[in-house]
Amino acid sequence: MLLSLAPVSELRGAIPVGLAAGIPVALLYPACVLANLIPVPLIIVFLRKVLAWMQRCGGILQKGADWLIRRGATKSALVKKYEMLGLFLLVAIPLPGTGAWTGALVAALLGRRIKHAMPIIGAGVATAGVLVLLICKGIIHIAGLI
């Protein structure tokens, strides 16, 4: 669950580790999805305030805030173009730099309300989890798709 909470690994890293540890899929999948969604409402509600505070502090905090804002802006093009479908795709496609944390960052920076963004991000996380499970079980062969 801790890997699912983390911003870099999320459930994309937690599911393969859980499978390797022998955790049954019936326990692993829901635990990873739920853990991955825990930080989302906090990010959507508080991120803009935290970033504004970081920018006011200056120094390394300001540089960190500026980096997060730039990262969100580059990822937000898909969401701006396709609205909620774009947000879903940003979260659902299990690639580096995508996921619940990035989706919540983009939703917060675009001013999306939690009641609209949370269900879409949740559906994206659930879809990403299924895709990661299918890849780990060998049902989807990435090399065959490229």
Describe the structure.
- With 146 residues, this protein is mainly alpha-helical.
- 81% of the residues lie in helices and 0% in strands.
- The protein is globular.
- The chain starts with a helix and ends with a helix.
- The model has no long low-confidence stretch (mean pLDDT 89).
Q: What is the average of the pLDDT values?
A: 89
Residue ranges: pLDDT <50 for 5 or more in a row?
Answer: none
Strand content: under 5%
Rg: 16 Å
DSSP helical segment count: 8
First CA to last CA: what distance? 31 Å
Overall shape: globular
Helix % is over 70%
Largest sheet: none
Q: Would you count the extended β strands for me?
A: 0
String of helices and strands: HHHHHHHH
The secondary structure category is mainly alpha
How do you describe this structure in short?
It contains eight helices and no strands. The protein has 146 residues and is an all-alpha fold. The longest helix is centred in the middle third of the chain and has 34 residues, at 59-92.
